[in-house]
């Protein structure tokens, strides 16, 4: 978990989730930590544009998106985009 979101997951840097694809894994995460939902999804339930999920170094948007299949040992990396100046 990125540092700005750790307060929503009891300070954990990693969270174990279940799911056969990215959508199920994200739903598992948000079911465990409901306060994350508004930070990760919009009112339509879609991932916010600044939420980037990487699997094996590749953004899942460049794979099959939320339908990207996950293996039992896969790790998703959640990286929110940061703007600044």
- Strand fraction band? 5-15%
Order of helices and strands, N to C?
HHEEE
Q: What overall form do the CA principal axes indicate?
A: globular
Low-confidence stretches: none
Q: What topology, given as strand order, has the largest sheet?
A: 2-1-3
Structure in words:
The structure is a single chain. The longest helix is centred in the first third of the chain and has 11 residues, at 22-32. With 85 residues, the protein is an alpha+beta fold. 18% of the residues lie in helices and 14% in strands. The chain has helices spanning 22-32, 37-40, and strands spanning 51-55, 58-59, 76-80. The protein is globular, with a radius of gyration of 12 Å. The two termini are 24 Å apart. 9% of the residues are buried. A three-stranded antiparallel sheet has the order 2-1-3, with no helix packed on it. Strand 1 (51-55) and strand 2 (58-59) form a beta hairpin.
